[in-house]
Amino acid sequence: xxxxxxxxxxxxxxxxxxxxxxxxxxxxxxxxxxxxxxxxxxxxxxxxxxxxxxxxxxxxxxxxxxxxxxxxxxxxxxxxxxxxxxxxxxxxxxxxxxxxxxxxxxxxxxxxxxxxxxxxxxxxxxxxxxxxxxxxxxxxxxxxxxxxxxxxxxxxxxxxxxxxxxxxxxxxxxxxxxxxxxxxxxxxxxxxxxxxxxxxxxxxxxxxxxxxxxxxxxxxxxxxxxxxxxxxxxxxxxxxxxxxxxxxxxxxxxxxxxxxxxxxxxxxxxxxxxxxxxxxxxxxxxxxxxxxxxxxxxxxxxxxxxxxxxxxxxx
Length: 315
Known about the structure:
By secondary structure, the protein is mainly β. The protein contains 1 helix and 35 strands. Helices cover 4% and strands 37% of the residues. The strands form 7 sheets. A 9-stranded mixed sheet has the order 1-4-7-10-13-16-19-21-22, with no helix packed on it. The protein has a 6-stranded parallel sheet with strand order 3-6-9-12-15-18, with no helix packed on it. A 6-stranded mixed sheet has the order 23-31-30-33-28-35. β30 and β31 form a beta hairpin. The longest helix has 13 residues. This is Isomerase. Keywords: Isomerase, Repeat, Transferase. One of its GO terms (molecular function) is isomerase activity.
């Protein structure tokens, strides 16, 4: 089928995939590699050391500089600004440019600015006009200057009504639509004039014998914790004070819970990608772990986790 090159476009690259359309006043340098079925709109500039996957859309006024990779199905809105040198000087070129990667299915809104050396994760969304200063996790929705996480895309909000657009209060949560093996557990609670007490029974409520615990507190509300999985370790989360939003992901399904009372626990089996964010100012999160700390048990790259999870499901 070949590629369509508009008569007023300048495409110097021979590595342009079938079905790709390059429109008027776009300029593609010789070293660039562009996949199949892409749409390169008017006045786009693509430098040499650039790799663009299949089905990528580049709207008008985008410049893609050396060191940038756009994976399959990425959308880049009009006038998005990429950068590749953290300390640019006129006529002073660095030995190598910072590598920026926009992973599969991510979308970047118009007029956003992407600083150099950043990875924007799978299916993430960057709001229009945002200034992205650090890595964006997979499926995260970020907005503002500097960009901060405001939510997660393609994630079931665990409430009584699955059509809700934001997480709801934890008493209404259901476990049925969550990631595989994740359970929400109501712990034993006793309240009288002397105060309140919460207790959990090992095995019947907490499905493992803890070997370690840690407490997370004084977390700025704009920050996130976790963003990893464990090969063997299971975890049980209880928010003792305040509230925390917890994302669970089994490699296929993602769900978001609000932990906002101390008699509510969230069980995360091994091979669950977990992220906690939106900590309230007074949040105190207790985490019970089934294993002692082992650095080799952590999976910190989301792409590696998804591959391992799918391989385990096929086995």
